[in-house]
Design goal:
Elements (H helix, E strand, L loop, with lengths): L1 H8 L4 H79 L1
Length: about 90
Amino acid sequence: MLVLAEHMAGNPYAGWWAGLVISFGVVVVVVAVVAALLLYASRIGDGAGEALDALESAHEGITPLARLGDASGAARAALAGARSARASLERTG
């Protein structure tokens, strides 16, 4: 470090060069970090798209189960009607 300081002592622009080199290094590091973040964001986006496709597929698979609930309600109503008719036949018979 002392050698660098002695070498820079005679050059009036040495501070500028050191600043430029340090700034270039900082910019390179920032670009690398941003590139890594963008890569991870892209991977997350791809995964989210696949998850949405899987969710849509699961929704299509569950839709018949909702209809089964409607059928169950209709069957219970029919059973209640049949019991009511049986009770009324037993009373008249």
